[in-house]
Design a protein that fits this description.
The complex is a heterodimer of chains A (about 260) and B (about 850). Chain A is an alpha/beta fold. Chain A has a domain of about 180 residues: P-loop containing nucleotide triphosphate hydrolases (Rossmann fold, 3-Layer(aba) Sandwich), CATH 3.40.50.300. Chain A is about 35% helix and about 25% strand. Chain A is globular and about 50 Å long. By secondary structure, chain B is an alpha+beta fold. Among the domains of chain B are: about 110 residues; about 220 residues, no CATH class; about 160 residues, no CATH class. Chain B has 24 helices and 24 strands. In chain B, strand 16 and strand 17 form a beta hairpin. In chain B, helix 2 runs antiparallel to helix 10, helix 7 packs across helix 13 and helix 12 packs across helix 13. Chain B is globular and about 95 Å long. In chain B, about 50% of the residues are buried. The chains are: A alpha/beta (about 260), B alpha+beta (about 850).
Chain lengths: ~260, ~850
Amino acid sequence: MAAITTAGPSTAASEAFPIAARTTDAVKEYGKGDAMVRALDSITVAFDKGRFSAIMGPSGSGKSTLLHCLAGLDRLTSGTVHIGEVELGSLNDRQLTMLRRVRVGFIFQSFNLVPTLSALDNIVLPLTIAGKKPDAAALAEVVRITGLGDRLKHHPNQLSGGQQQRVAAARALASQPEIIFADEPTGNLDSRASTDLLDFLRHAVTELGQTIIMVTHDPLAAAHADRVVFLADGRVVSEMQAPTADSVLDVMRHLGD
Amino acid sequence: MIGISLRSLLSHKLRLALTTIAVILGVSFVAGTFILTDTINATFTSIFATANAGVAVTVHGHPIAGETGGVGGGQNHPIPTSLLTTVRAVPGVKDAVGNIFREGATLIGHDGTPIGGNGPPTFGANWITNSGISPYRLRSGSAPQQPNDVVVDAGTAAKNGLAVGQTLPIVFLGGVEEHFTITGIAGYGTSDNLAGATIALFTESTAERVLEGQNKYDSILVSAQSGVTDVVLRESIAAALPSYAEAETGQQAAAAAEQSTESTISTFIGTPLLVFAFISLFVGSFLIINTFNILVAQRTRELALLRALGATRAQVMASVLVEAAVTGLVASILGFVVGILIARALLSVFGSASTGGVTLLPRTFIIAVLVGTIVTVIAASLPARRATRIAPVAALAEALPETQPLPRRRIVIGLVIFVLGCAALLVGLFTSAGSKLQLIGAGFLGVFLGVALLAPLLVVPIAIVLGWPVAHVRGAAGILAGQNARRNPRRTALTAAALMIGLALVTCVAVLTDSVRVSTNDAIEGAFRADFIVFTQGPDFNTQAAQALQQDPSLADVTEVRGTSVLIRGSSQGIAAIDPANLGSVLSLTMVSGTASAIASANTAIVDSTEANASGVHLGQLVTFTFPQGASVPVRIGGIYTANALVSGYVVSLATMEPNVPAARDTIVLANAANGVSPSQAEVALHHDVKAFPLLMAMSRSEYRTFVGASLDSFLNLIYTLLAFAIIIAVLGIANTLILSVLERTREIGLLRALGMTRSQTRSMVRWESVIISLLGAVLGLAVGLGLGVAVSGSLHDLGITEIAIPGSNLIFYAIIAGVFGVVAAIFPTIRASRVDILRAITTE
């Protein structure tokens, strides 16, 4: 119990870092009447710039919903979400699209690569969509650290799962977004590939100053983060700085997962 | 398993919607054609039955040489009026009347133009006073008594505001107007009308005069004394008849008339429409194959699971086929219903012919349902076979690779079918093989199937070329559009091939008409020396016009051209006759040997070189012409010329033809401006002269050229209309493939949206994929159509199609239209794609 701090205003990010994204009284409801489910139940939370944050919780705790709302993929029922100083609720579909295009990067559990495009074309896809030329040096750096140099001409079906997820990670980095949202990025990977990917994400944060917010249910994955926010029943119930796999597992057990 | 098929069917309602529409369209075309022709036939049958109720026996002449019988009569050996006495004297005959019933009495409406235009036939006939035999029933007024009295049919009267007491101008056989007084309005049997034709009834002597039937009838109608059966009476009469005439019972005559109209309707309406209906179904089958291929691909996991749980291959196959059969059945029944509407619409466009409802025979329903269901099942059997090859292990595997290389076997089969198709086409076109049309049809089919089978090989290179500019204009959306168009070459190829067929046929016909246009223009410029041409779009016209023009001092070299059919070595052939005196001034024939003026000698002909070669005729040889009235005349070949688009076959002098044909009728009259008269003055004079002949048209050479062009254009428009169903189905096919692809790629589209693709970029991506597929269809269609058009035009060299022309502007127009079709086909798929819910797309497994 000692490791668990109470939820509340104190979950705000520490003063040392500017805030990359935050929610205030975020509520998300699905369905109507008796069938209504409250996936987010008044969550107020902030995530620091330049840090690797993890969101954990048992199934149905609302962690994926929170990520989707933070990333502008889904809209809140009430409350606000900010990325930087922009309030997402005030944006129309096109503005949200532009925000995702310019300021946000994604890594999904199922790698979600475009099968007709080569690894390289997949990596630069967000830039192509935006009609921009990739910055050659930045791209070379991304390719170098993901170790995909000899795989760039391959199509997704010629790559292993780990390689595909590294392409997805490179894609998220290549457009140099403010925040990368990762939704269970290691969910479909074996432990070796998972470790590679997490090391890579850690590296991006430490070396490149990238902001990453990751949803995971794997304590080993969460242990790579700087901070873990725990959710249960749509509320923030706890958080932890500098987590280890054991300490995370401990909290999770208490949350009944 | 059937339960599984039906549940699958229900869950794919949207996916099968366009397939169903395609089958409905194809089947409705088939059903509509049958209903249309059945209804017209039934109308005639009931008319003949009621109109001839009082006729026990009909006497008419045998069909004459070189011609076939028809509705209007006049092509049978005429009956001299004296034969009426003979027939009346036969025991058992109650009464017999002479019947004159011929085409060529055109009524002029209140607006001064011919009633019916160039549409239904315009009959003239004698009023038959014996109402027990006559098919005509007076509705108001009285029978014609005076030479200038006329009774008109009730249908024409009602439609054109004709009433008893009015003066009615009538033109006979393309001649000048004569004025008649309407004394009565009559029905034909119980109908208002003979299925849309106009009928004008005169006294017998007037009918003989105006219809040029002096002392001749077309038939004799006989009623029987009570107690004498038709069959017995027919035998008695037949025994009394000379050899050129025969007797039929009323029933036989009605049956023969029905059969002859039925075969006419089937030749001119039924068969052509069915050909185009078949093309629509053929195109539709491509769409069906694609749909079921995609459904099977999407259900791979489910089908594999069924296999893993113990379903046999046969059960998997059956589950797909049952789904197809139910779809086909439902669509066919709907198609039958739509067919009824189409037939109704067409009947109301043709006007007249319909007397209310349509004729629905059980046969039509059975054919419609069988055709639609069988086509659907056969088309789905290829995807069904693919379904049986899904291994049970696929249930556990990741998604199958989307594209498999084209099997070598398929390439070989495609090549073989293509080559066989080309061979059949060429044999059908260029040799005198017995079943020309069947060979040509099979050739087209083979070429289309072969190209469709080989098309997947062409998809990638062509899509790369077409996609290049799109990628440069549309950025990411353009790049992805190009990639998507070639990610599944077989699917794209099949979709494009459906459009290819319609465009290839359109292109083929465009090349053909353009070749005819250019060849005719060449002939008009080269062979045609006359300044002016006078002609009609109806049957041949009498010589009044030529006589009038000969009186005009502004005109010179007025030359009649006549035509008739003769038997040459047992086969019927059209020959032309012309006045040799003016031949050189109005026509310029290129002679291979002999001279054109040789026809000035009696019983001498010139013939074109192709015909001469084909039938082995040489200069100086004697050829026997058997003329319609039976005279056999040996004709010497005095010259051989090169055929052109206006003149081909045998040509003789008027003097050679005249004694051997019953009536002098001109097909065209040619004339020049007289010496010292300017062409424009002569033209004014000519138009003034021809004004007296409401059915005739007079044109200068350049006007005639334009006129020929315009009639070719209207032919081309007719073909466009007939191919519209096939092209609509092809466009539906593109929409269908795109919708199914969009559904299949939901996750991918969601991802692109998540990565910052706007809705309009998403729409653009789908739209340009559609345009690339359409243009692929256009490239294939134009290429195949050009090949076919050149082959078909080339084969008509003998008919004077000496030039092969490629209508470049038409082809560019078709390509642009194809692109527009692509945009249209994409409307619904783009909406679907832009509405993809990002979150559901990327999170659902």
